[in-house]
Amino acid sequence: MKAPLPPGEARALPREGGRAAGLVYPTALLLVLFGLLVFSIRDKSPTLDEQNHLARGLAALKTGDLRLSQEHPPGANAWAAWPLLLDPRIRLPLESPSWANAEWYSFADELLWRSGQEPHPQTTISGTRVPVMWLTLLLAALGYRWARELGGRWAGGVALALLVFDPNLLAHGRLTTNDMALTCAVLAASYALWRALRAPDWSRWALAGAALGAALLCKFSALVLVPIAGGILLVSWFPGAARTLKARDRRVLRPVLYFAVAALVVWAGYGFSWGAIDGLGGLPGPAPAFWAGIQAILRRTGGGSSAFLLGQVSQTGWWYYFPVAFAVKTPLATLIVLGWGIGGWGIRGLGRAVRARWQEWGSGLPALLCLVLSPVAFWTMAIAGSFNIGYRHILPSLPFFYIAAAWSLAAARRRVWKPALRSRPQSLIPADPGRTLIPALLLWLALNTLLLAPHYLANFNLLAGGPENGYRVLVDSNLDWGQDLPGLARAVRERGEERVYLSWFGAAHPEAYDLAFHPLPGFWRFGGEAAAYGFNPLNPAPGLYALSATTLQGVKMRDRDLYAWFRARTPLASAGHSILLYRVEPAPEATERVVLGVPLAELAAEERELLRRAQSVRQYDSGTG
User: Fold this and answer.
1) CA separation (Å) from 344 to 156, 163, 349, 432, 488?
2) pLDDT range class, residue 452, cuts 50, 70, 90
3) If we measure between CA atoms, which residue out of 135, 120, 128 comes closest to residue 218?
4) Residue 509 and residue 441: Cα distance in Å, rounded?
5) DSSP, residue by residue, 183-221
6) Alpha helices by DSSP H, 199-309
7) Which residues contact 92 (CB under 8 A, 6 or more apart)?
């Protein structure tokens, strides 16, 4: 049973009405969310990481072998891939050397694109996106429930609207990756612990432990939840130190159950395996692949990654990368609601709400920490690290921000705005902001998202100049993750072009979308010297060029200025804002064809100047003739 509200709190809470009436709004918004997700995947090709997650999950389910899941736990991948077990036509290329060598990219490429098996890769990837959409719906429902329990139905409605119409959550809530699974599991684990602290019966503690274990099976960054939970439980224990010995024993045994269930869930996710653990000097222990995976991800992220921000490319990143990404990729309406809710009027209302609920919770601080510490931890890891490749790494913090802002605004509405209106009808407050300004901001957010659909990944607010200017600020999984091949093929056909010059950042095969193209250097499929493709970066040949925003900016390219000629010009159009189209007109004067004996980067200044007159370049390997 729920603890009774403190005196006077029942009058402060809004009237809830009947159960059926209270379900209409959240049900309608969840249906809208599902529609926004489902109807936006048809025109989106697999992103750079999706096929790897798909291959890892399917291999783990079919073979029980986790050799491909070295950087990520298998839970989220297996959850996304299980629908493929229902299609007998899909066969794993286990005879491939890529399987023997645990080469994720090559194995996934062979599974999805080179095996020639049915169904079409687009159909295959769409099937694995559906379970991820279910997690997105669960995330929104949990956010609504937590905010409603904190601040009433109005707070729940605000939090739900922020979650449903957030383009960043929509973008990753339909992809076969582990980002949405982690975001949902982190919120579920925090919410379940909060409920266990409020009404500490054994079933709630077991459920909270299962939620923590599920989060640990999604992504290794969820390990930060373990010390967070330990700290919260330690804080919650001290207020009961004066209780009877029996009560104290229960307060100790419940956390033991909590962590034991979490460990059991993780071990079950690794098939109850037992073997030598490198970190323990080869001593045997449970789930050796789990501990090996932690070491693998530390090696992967420790050296950073090629990143782009505001025209600069860096291997070590910037401490302000994620604050800038949050500022330009979070919708302005959402930023205003967060600024208003977590600051300004909201701080005062939130402080009063916490004090009012202190008696109800027994100890308000541990419960409040459940809402605060997780987003702080993910932001700390993001800013302190050098792995600056996408907004998605702070995605788990968004639900907590929205719930806190909604709770704070609800408290301010009950305790500040309405009393002010009653006592000063002619005051500067023209009306209850909870009935006017907040709904107007949420409507603005909804319209912005609907107009952007289905290109949610390309969301940039007006601070960055909008989606069409996003490639100047951020690239990679912030904008260009290889998702817009269908849109590019359609754009080329609409222009009546027979072929396009394509520099591609992605793993999908453009030819699978009936796109006739001449390849140019990109990542990861087309590598090597530009001259090998007949491309002169100083004087491109006439034609239509399609350049992924990431390769345009030189990220992960050997020569960062390979496409500087195009960067200095305004694109003709774009496909989903991520693939930029340029038209190169024929030069009026005659041009030459050149054969190079050395790489472009090794040319002297005089030779590069001569090259400016040539539109076609070939590479000659002097070593082999």
Assistant:
1) 20, 22, 9, 16, 45
2) very high
3) 135
4) 41
5) HHHHHHHHHHHHHHHHS--HHHHHHHHHHHHHHHTT-GG
6) 202-216, 225-237, 245-269, 288-302
7) 58, 59, 62, 63, 99, 111
pLDDT at 145: 96
3-state secondary structure of 380: helix
Residues 128/84, Cβ–Cβ less than 8 Å: yes
**Distances in whole angstroms, Cα of residue 106 to Cα of each of 43, 57, 103, 110, 193:** 24, 15, 6, 6, 41
∠ Cα 191 196 200 (to 5°) = 165
DSSP-derived letter for residue 475 is -
Short-list 540, 535, 565, CA closest to 552:
565
Amino acid sitting at position 172 = H
* CB-neighbour burial class of residue 606 (10 A; exposed 0-12, middle 13-18, buried 19+): exposed
* pLDDT above 70: residue 345: no
Confidence band for 286, pLDDT divided at 50, 70 and 90: very high
Model confidence band, residue 475 (pLDDT cutoffs 50, 70, 90): very high
- Containing 58, the helix (H) or strand (E) segment is helix 50-63
What does each C-alpha distance from 41 to 448, 452, 484, 511 come to in angstroms? Answer: 19, 14, 11, 19
Q: Which whole-number Å values give the CA distances from 82 to 78, 129, 411, 583, in the listed order? A: 6, 11, 43, 44
Q: Distance between CA atoms of 78 and 62, rounded to whole angstroms?
A: 10
DSSP assignment of 121-186 equals HHHHHHHHHHHHHHHHHHHHHHHHHHHHHHH-HHHHHHHHHHHHT-HHHHHHTTSSSSHHHHHHHH
Q: Per-residue pLDDT for 23 more than 50?
A: yes
Backbone angles phi, psi at 318, to 5 degrees: -135, 145
The C-alpha angle 381, 387, 390, rounded to 5 degrees, equals 95
Q: Distance of alpha carbon 127 from its chain centroid, rounded?
A: 19
What torsion do the CA atoms of 146, 151, 156, 158 make, to the nearest 10 degrees?
A: -130
Long-range pairs of 467-472 with CB within 8 A, sequence gap ≥ 24: 467/577, 468/574, 468/577, 470/328, 470/549, 470/577, 471/549, 471/552, 471/553, 471/577, 471/578, 471/580, 472/310, 472/311
Position 47, amino acid: T
**Taking the CA atoms of the chain, what radius of gyration do you get in angstroms?**
27
- Length of the chain, in residues: 625
CA–CA–CA angle 549, 133, 321 (5° rounding): 40
Please tell me the predicted confidence (pLDDT) of residue 529.
Answer: 82
Query: Residue 129's closest CA among 190, 179, 93?
Result: 179
Q: How many CA atoms lie less than 13 Å away from 421 in the CB half-sphere?
A: 13
